[in-house]
């Protein structure tokens, strides 16, 4: 009788599939939305022209009135701005014996986590602009539409009216909202029970509302308190500036923890973001959840 895997199962190595199942996670979307990115390792100042000058009708032999343009500037990435940093150690034994490429798996994990943390901050309503970047809903000088109830299509039209009133290019505007708000809007029906917001069956993917693409991100924060409310925004991201010192960068530390016979992966990034024209950002607040 031949010896088989049944009679000598202890001699058979356990089979492990050499793949790593990853959790479902939201991709980073703020930087992919199309802001203007400036690579710099030091504080950056972006000059800004002020309000239009007054131009008058002038008759023959009359004195031409003098115009004095105003100038301002936008400051990004002050020296006090902190970085996002994380570090993970692992033993050389684990690296050698792992059935998957452990360093690649850890690298993907850490880079994803750092990008998610940055995305959450840039979409947030927090940040002081000094040590942490201000989030989109913390920017000052932007336009605000107080919804004060359930979000409706009329509110979207009102937000678009505010943007158009500020001379924002409608072709560049995008909605920013959570999946919860998007689905509520798509479920609106007419008196005959038909959905008003119809998806484009010919589109490759994504969503549009009033002809503008929708950035669906569940990192858009609700307000806190006993009765939290939701937020949304209509943004021209071409009028948003991002200062990038370091994109999420990975460094393998093979000597730092040598006395423990360990390796380490370090991921660091440093960003800042502000609107070039705050009027190109329309915030919708007070949305009933």
From TrEMBL:
It comes from Mycolicibacterium litorale. It holds the Pfam family Phage_capsid. Residues 21-285 form the Phage capsid-like C-terminal domain. It is found in: Virion. InterPro entries: Phage_capsid (IPR024455), Phage_capsid-like_C (IPR054612). SUPFAM superfamilies: Major capsid protein gp5. This is Phage capsid-like C-terminal domain-containing protein.
């Amino acid at each position: 009788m031949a010896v088989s895997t049944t009679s000598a199962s202890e001699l058979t190595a356990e089979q492990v599939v050499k793949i790593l199942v990853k959790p479902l996670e939201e991709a980073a979307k703020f930087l992919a939305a199309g802001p203007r990115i400036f690579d710099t390792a030091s504080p950056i100042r972006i000059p800004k022209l002020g309000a239009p000058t007054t131009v008058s009708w002038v008759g023959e032999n009359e004195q031409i009135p003098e115009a004095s343009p105003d100038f301002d500037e936008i400051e990004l990435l002050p020296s006090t701005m902190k970085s996002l940093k994380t570090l993970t150690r692992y033993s050389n034994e684990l690296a050698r014996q792992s059935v998957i490429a452990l360093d690649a798996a850890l690298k993907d994990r850490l880079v994803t986590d750092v990008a998610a943390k940055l995305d959450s901050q840039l979409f947030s309503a927090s940040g002081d602009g000094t040590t942490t970047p201000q989030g989109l809903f913390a920017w000052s000088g932007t336009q605000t539409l107080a919804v004060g109830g359930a979000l409706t299509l009329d509110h979207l039209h009102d937000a678009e009216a505010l943007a158009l009133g500020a001379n924002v290019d409608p072709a560049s505007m995008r909605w920013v909202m959570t999946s919860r708000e998007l689905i509520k809007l798509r479920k609106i029906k007419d008196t005959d029970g038909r959905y008003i917001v119809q998806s484009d069956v010919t589109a490759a993917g994504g969503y549009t509302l009033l002809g503008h693409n929708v950035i669906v991100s569940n990192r858009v924060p609700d307000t806190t308190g006993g009765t939290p409310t939701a937020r949304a925004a209509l943004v021209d991201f071409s009028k948003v500036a991002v200062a990038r010192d370091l994109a999420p960068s990975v460094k393998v530390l093979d000597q730092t923890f040598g006395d423990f016979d360990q390796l380490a992966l370090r991921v660091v990034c440093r960003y800042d973001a502000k609107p070039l024209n705050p009027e190109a950002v329309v915030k919708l607040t007070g949305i009933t959840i």
